[in-house]
Structure formats: structure tokens, C-alpha cells
Sequence to fold (422 residues):
Amino acid sequence: MVKWLPIEITPWILALTILALSTINQFDPFSNNYFIFLIEMSLSIFVLMRYELEWPASVKICLLVLIWFSSVAFSTLLAHFQPHSTATWARVAEEGMHVFFGWNVWRLIRLNQRSWVSVIAFSWVLGAFIALVSIIYRWNILSNPRGVGVDWTSNLPLFANLCHMGYLISVAVIAQFFIFLRAQKNSSIWASLLSLILLNAFLMWIGRRATLLSTSIALLTMAFFMGRPTLKRSLWLLMSLPISLLLCEYFAVGNLGLFGTFHRTLAGVAEGVDQLSSGRWHIWLNAWRHVLVQPWFGYGAEGYIGIRSGDAISGGILHPHNVFIQCLVEWGFVGTLIFIALFYQWLKPLVQRLRSQYRQLNYQADVLLGSAVAGNLLLVSLSEGIFYHGTHTAFLALSIGLALGAQLNQTDSRLSASVRSL
Fold:
């Protein structure tokens, strides 16, 4: 452990890490994933250098992580013996780094520094407002931002894809709701509510159905578990939604905005399930056919690119827009089942804690923040590429590390001794 690194810089390192993850998304996906790998590695190296090494208490989790990573590596190794394989070791390294990053976040939260949880929440919100400012800047420099030829879905400042920006905003809405519920001073309460109004308007403006639905579920879950003390503030947020909607529709362009999303949904219902799913149903069926060809170990990391060719709809995308199909394509049934077992080991104690400490704030609010963000991203991953793009997978790893770390008892004697030694 390197003693000369001051512990006081930890919140700054955390904040800079999250802000960097939130703003390095304007390149192609392969470059983005590479830069995010470096960002995750930087935080992990700092934690390894500054804090005592500590392993998860569950030997089962450690073994499952080792077995899963070995399975991913084996799938990629097998894929290299196949003709026209697109499997890469770079993606294996990225997947391993996401797990390593989440473990180091878990170690930080284990130190019982609740202020660091607030740093994470504020950093997510700040990253979203930086994205909002970039959109406002682009709006102002355009002579006609509502013009027919103006593309608001791709090549945006900070983000190459509007959908990916939407995932960041959804995480920030949850983080801001967490800050709003915990605010004590009237000035903080009203500032948080104003921030929520703006972020909700931005999320509606982006207009992604899956993101809107998953964020709504996450917010309702947080309000429910935090109980009666938050009921009044939750109602304030509910009453502020019309203001967000007005802001959203005032700046709506093309098919963006809540009403545009509603119109697209109605058109999709009329034209069939594939149109309703924006072509995803066809993509899933095409990928599933390839899964059945190599069901056990799949096509290796990045293997989907190799099987998509020859299909008119799937040919231009990098992932199948579904977490289960993506895992089956890359890792096969073996790696996917091991990964599901890992998630079960995380969910089981989390659900037990929420049930046993229902409506007891203590550390539960911090558990809820991590759980709500992770649940939100997992729900979105059923129809989007959360498990492929580096920023969102990093946020997922961060939120799981936060939820797992915050589950632990504040009076853990071993933890207290570790903190005192610092």
C-alpha cells in the first residue's frame, strides 16, 4: 500500500472517473471501449496502490468469477480455430476489466465512506448536465435546429449516438432522485427538484421507450422502498412532470420527444411486431439461429460481428440488442449460465436485506441507489446494447459494486480496523 497518496483525493478520483466515462463517447465504439478500459484501469490501479487488498467474503463468488472468465477465454480461443471468426482478445480484456473495476468500487464503498456514495451520485448528475449543455450549444449554433436535414440522432457532441446519451441521462435521473430524497435543507430540496425537472425533460426529449420505461420503474421502486418519509417529495416530482413535458415538447424535433415516441409506438402496433420493436425481432431471430449452430461455447468475444454478415437488417449493427442473446452468441450456454449464477449470488443477499430492513434508511438508501441504477441498465439491456458499449457496462459494474458494498454492516469490526489503519 502506497502511504504517500493522500486518502483525501479519493472522492476527486472517483468524480473524475465518472465524468470521463460520461464524456468520452464521441468516437467509434471500438475506440470508446479502449478509452473506457484505460479509465477503469486507472481507478483500479489507484485503489490497489492506496488501500489494503481485500477479497469478497464469499469464496463462491470468487470461484464463479474465475470460472466465468475462464469460460469466456475458452470460447474466444475455440473461435480462433474457425474460419472468418471475428473474436478478439481485446474484448475479453474489456469484459475482465469491467469486473475488476466493479470489484474496486466495492472495495471503496466497503470503507464505510458514505460521502463517496454522494460523490458518485453528484458525478453522474454533473456528467448528464455536461451532455445537456453540449446539446444546447449545438442547438444555438445551428441556424435552423428544427430543419429537415439536421441529424439529432448521431454524431452529437460527446456522444456518437443519441441512444447512448439517453442511458447516461436515465442513470443521472435516478441519481438526482436519490439526492432529492436525501436533501435536508429547503434550498437543496428545491435545487434538486429543478434539476430533476430539467433531466426528466431531457430524457423525454431523447424519447427512447425502453429507457423511459426502465427509469420509471427504477424511480417507483426507490420511492416504495424508502417509504413514507419520501411520499411527499415523490408527489412533488410527480406534479413537476407536466413542466418537464412542456419543456420537452417545446424543443421537440422530428420524431424525438414524448409525443413523437408515442406516435412511433402507435405506428409500430399497426404495422406489426418487427416494426414495433424497430427491427429487433428480426435481429433476435437471426442471431438465435446462429446460437443453435454453436450452442455450448458460442462464437467468442466480439463474435456477433462475424455472424451478422449477409443479413440486410443485422449487417450494420455491432450487437443483437438483447443481453441474453448477446451472451449466448459470445459465450454460449455454458458461459451464460455461469454469468446468471453470478448475478443470482448478487441478487439473493440484496433482496434479503431490502426485505429485512424495509423502510429503515440507515445504509439502505445507498443500497437502493446502486440497485436502482443496475436494475435500470439491466432492463434496458433487454432491447439495447448495454452489455456491449463500454460506458454503460462500466456504469453497471460501478452500480453493482456500490450496491454490494453498501449492503455491509456499518459495525463490521474488521472494516473499522482497516479504516483506522489508514
About this structure: The chain is about 70% helix and 0% strand.
